[in-house]
């Protein structure tokens, strides 16, 4: 049994923290029409009645709206962070004050505290897990396998988590079904592209007070996140350079008009580096050695392994905080390489960062909520074997339709003749 304290027991002035947290949540709520509709439906129909949900996500205002909706649907929820720097303590405190919700999330925890808080959520003996990065699934399988029989399933928010889950499933080690929420169109085409693009650039600009215009911005990886970062940086008048290992993505970036080159070449000309690969060791010693004085190094991938900070530390003769959220590493020849937000998710871990814009998280969390509901529709339960599952397309469409209605956007429907035509193979010329 964990004795890890909930956030309310960790803060000095809990009352004012809660008040500020509620204010942030109220602002988010006003811009989350999908979650509003989901919450109303959950409140009325109680689809999660009696369930226990453990969550590890970035605990800030938008996530709080998802947590509240799950509790409103009848579940008891225990939540913690999925990154040591992304929690907003005030929001965490406000959540912890809601009926049926316990929050253990605290900003700035060390490794030990981070995992202790995850264990504290597992103490709830969850029937459902909701992860961003798969740390909960991993902890349950490694340390609490006896709980697996009682778990209906899980949902995973991010690309890195889905990769880890697929690796686990390929090894035959994943013992309950998990929905790849990340892979839905309503998540990936908006959150990964626009969300990562906008929020990473906004956090970097706010943290450094520097301009994009005329800068050489090196984007590591041209997946959905890299595409968003490249597009938005280009829109801010930067010269975008893309590095890739996948030939078709490299070609796509080239045809989009970006410069494509190996990191070894990009290292010499880049002013700002933003990694988005989900892999490790994207920027390493041989690159640091050739960088210009004053470069900014930032990561927008889930884990802090894309920039090799140990190697950078070994090369440095001095190291100091250049600004809040910026650590300067000084090389023997006097060059200063500036690491933003400790190489952790820059859009969530920088001191001024707010995560993705509210509108895109409304979509992502709308899909999360209906995916949780789907896990519990008992008539479907047999369909979901242990392993990674796509979220059924009709659920994703449901979320898109709510959003379009909220935006007052009308769209066409297929006629019967068109449907028939699309379904046939014998209409030639
Ligand atoms: N993300 N969450 C936020 N709550 O502000 N911002 C981004 C927030 C999620 C996003 O969906 C992405 O897949 C994941 O964080 C990476 O950890």
UniProtKB/TrEMBL annotation:
Primary enzyme class: hydrolase
Cited CDD domains: SAHH
Xref: SUPFAM superfamilies: Formate/glycerate dehydrogenase catalytic domain-like, NAD(P)-binding Rossmann-fold domains
Intracellular or extracellular location(s): Cytoplasm
Reaction(s) the record says it catalyses: S-adenosyl-L-homocysteine + H2O = L-homocysteine + adenosine
EC number: 3.13.2.1
Keywords in alphabetical order: Cytoplasm, Hydrolase, NAD, One-carbon metabolism
Residue span, S-adenosyl-L-homocysteine hydrolase NAD binding domain: 192-353
Cofactor mode of binding and number, as noted: Binds 1 NAD(+) per subunit.
UniProt-annotated binding residues for substrate: 132, 157, 187, 191
Cofactor: NAD(+)
Pathway listed: Amino-acid biosynthesis; L-homocysteine biosynthesis; L-homocysteine from S-adenosyl-L-homocysteine: step 1/1
Record-listed NAD(+) binding positions: 158-160, 192, 221-228, 244, 279, 300-302, 347, 356
GO biological process, one term: one-carbon metabolic process
Gene Ontology molecular functions: adenosylhomocysteinase activity
GO cellular component, one term: cytosol
PANTHER family per record: ADENOSYLHOMOCYSTEINASE (PTHR23420:SF0)
NCBIfam families, per the entry: ahcY, PRK05476.2-3
Family to which the UniProt record says this protein belongs: Belongs to the adenosylhomocysteinase family.
Function: May play a key role in the regulation of the intracellular concentration of adenosylhomocysteine.
Protein name, UniProt field: Adenosylhomocysteinase
Organism listed in the record: Halovivax ruber (strain DSM 18193 / JCM 13892 / XH-70)
